[in-house]
Amino acid sequence: MRVLALDVGERRIGVAVSDPLGLWARPLQVITRRSKQEDYAAIAGLVEEYEAARVVVGHPLSLDGQVGPQALRVERYAAGLAERLSIPIVLWDERLSTAEAERLLHDAGETSREFRGRIDAVAAAVILQSYLDAVEERER
To answer: Rounded to an integer, what distance in angstroms lies between the CA atom of residue 82 and that of residue 107?
Structure first.
């Protein structure tokens, strides 16, 4: 069962995908946002291409766990996406995912300039791996 993950930002959407067993996440691509309809169509195409069983959407809660303006925007975005897809959409806490993605890329020897175009997809992979690890832990 593949899972797709999204890190929805103002200008870009980072996308990650799991392996077929739903154990490991990998960055896939970055979608440049144009309109919700075009975004949803691109995501639906990826869901179909990868035969994803669900989509995990990073939920940008504040550090104290509160739902702020950005989290509300993502909730509305996920609700709109859910109307267009026939698979479950899961909101997943994404606190510090971008910082973790930056650390991973820096540890891999990339400079900020080099990873600027990939950071959103790597952040989506961080979100997805967190989700997959939690699901695996629950199933034990």
So the answer is: 36
pTM: 0.86
Q: Point out which residues pair with 137 in neighbouring strands.
A: none
Q: Do residues 63 and 102 make contact, with C-beta atoms less than 8 angstroms apart? A: no
User: Which pair of structure tokens corresponds to residue 30?
Assistant: 């970055």
Return d(Cα 84, Cα 129) in angstroms, integer.
25
Provide the terminal-to-terminal Cα distance of the chain, rounded to the nearest Å.
17
How far apart are alpha carbons 130 and 110 in whole angstroms?
Answer: 23
Topology of domain 2-139, CATH:
Nucleotidyltransferase; domain 5 (3.30.420)
Domain range summary for the chain, segments of one domain joined by +: 2-139
The Cα–Cα gap between 13 and 11 comes to 7
Minimum mean pLDDT among 13-22, 47-56, 58-67, 108-117: which range? 108-117
Cβ pair 45, 85 in contact under 8 A: no
Residue burial 94-129, b: 16+ Cβ < 10 Å; e: rest: bbebbebbbebbeeeebeeeebeebbbbbbbbbbbb
